[in-house]
UniProtKB/TrEMBL annotation:
GO terms for molecular function: hydrolase activity. It comes from Maribacter spongiicola. Residues 84-329 form the Glycosyl hydrolase-like domain. This is Glycosyl hydrolase family 10. Keywords: Hydrolase, Signal. The keyword Iron does not apply.
Length: 373
């Protein structure tokens, strides 16, 4: 019990970090149709994730974006909390500094969503019957919506359309496009006395009436009756496909609006499947930005290369680019240099840093130097 208070802030940082993602560009090279399988090789691309508060002035954004432009970044992924007006305000400022803009949004996890909050039944329900509406797992802002229910899906897709319509935006960027973590990173478990050796009921979603009824209709068995739901492959696959269905619909919406679709995802497909029920190598998506944040998994820098390579292999034959997400705050300059090299030499199309404001002057020097051929 004593460790609970220590656990939450660290976990919050971790979860927040995992939510950051990136996007692709349209004007500078991404194709917007899947017909062009043979596209000219793009130059290695540099991105960063940032969050924008609408109370800030244009001058303050201009100063921040200038720094990114001056240091050679190609693209910024902006979280405006789903606000199209703020996004539209930021596009010209970013363009001034030659930055592509990608509309980054928390997708299935919707903390602070005033519309969703009017509908408690839209929220995902755990195997032990708790709703993310009032009893979220792990942290207070884990407000996951049900991916099956018609109304919650339409709400999410409507938000995607709103941002996809903003002029000058290159892509819509999906984040938290998954279920809540059934397993947290192994590095955190002993440190905080949290044991997750099996799929525990309080972290297992979604067992709402709509999900279980739809599954039962299709498979003639009810997940609430399973002794060990983790070994029922149809139930697992049902949930993987529920996430995929939202992604594929988002792809349609973004392309109809002349934009492409990008997504922040877990390090590589099997890992994403195991930890958060996210099988991104099967999605319709133009680019993925796997968050290969080695420090959260107790892994070394070369693991960034390992995970990058696995993702690139798994995407072979699909028209999806992979840009490696790097968590910069705890990296020395040498580690950062090596991380970028690991991504490059293992087939990534670019790298994205989390997050922009956290990058130090020394790290900027490394980023600039790594752009030279
Ligand atoms: Zn549900």
């Amino acid at each position: 019990m004593i460790k609970t208070t220590k656990f939450l802030p660290f976990l919050a940082l971790f979860i927040f970090t995992l939510n950051i993602s990136c996007e692709t560009k349209k004007e500078t090279g991404f194709t917007t149709t899947s017909e062009n399988a043979e596209v000219e090789k793009e130059p290695f691309k540099f991105w960063t994730w940032i969050t924008a508060e609408k109370t800030r002035t244009d001058a303050s954004f201009d100063e921040e974006f200038k720094k990114y432009g001056d240091n050679g970044l190609d693209a910024i992924l902006i979280n405006t909390y789903g606000d199209p007006e703020l996004l539209a305000r930021l596009v010209p400022i970013a363009k001034k500094h030659n930055l592509e803009v990608h509309a980054w949004m928390f997708t299935m996890n919707r903390p602070g969503d005033k519309v969703a909050e009017q509908h408690p039944e839209w929220y995902a329900v755990s195997r032990d019957g708790k709703s993310c509406f009032d009893e979220p797992p792990y942290v207070g802002y884990y407000k996951w919506l049900c991916p099956t229910r018609k109304e919650s899906r339409e709400h999410i897709l409507g938000l995607i359309e709103g941002l996809a319509k903003v002029e000058g935006v290159a892509s819509f960027h999906l984040d938290y496009i998954r279920y809540s973590d059934i397993f947290l990173p192994i590095g955190l478990l002993p440190k905080y006395d949290l044991k997750q050796e099996t799929e525990l009921p309080e972290y297992d979603f979604c067992y709402c009436d709509v999900c279980t009824a739809e599954f039962e209709k299709e498979h003639h068995k009810n997940p609430n009756d399973f002794t060990n739901p983790a070994i029922d492959m149809e139930w697992k696959n049902f949930r993987l496909n529920k996430v995929k269905a939202i992604v594929d619909e988002a792809y349609k919406i973004t392309h109809e609006n002349g934009k492409i679709l990008t997504a922040a995802v877990f390090p590589y497909p099997e890992m994403a499947d195991h930890m958060v029920r996210q099988r991104w190598d099967k999605w319709k998506v133009d680019a993925v930005l796997p968050m290969i944040y080695n420090v959260f998994y107790n892994e070394e820098i070369d693991w960034i290369g390992y995970a990058t390579k696995q993702g690139v292999e798994d995407l072979k034959g699909r028209n999806t680019e992979l840009h490696t997400g790097i968590y910069v705050p705890e990296m020395t300059v040498n580690q950062l240099k090596e991380a970028i090299n690991q991504a490059k030499s293992n087939g990534a199309n670019g790298v994205s840093f989390f997050d922009g404001p956290a990058i130090t002057e020394e790290q900027w020097q490394v980023i600039k130097a790594s752009q030279k051929p």
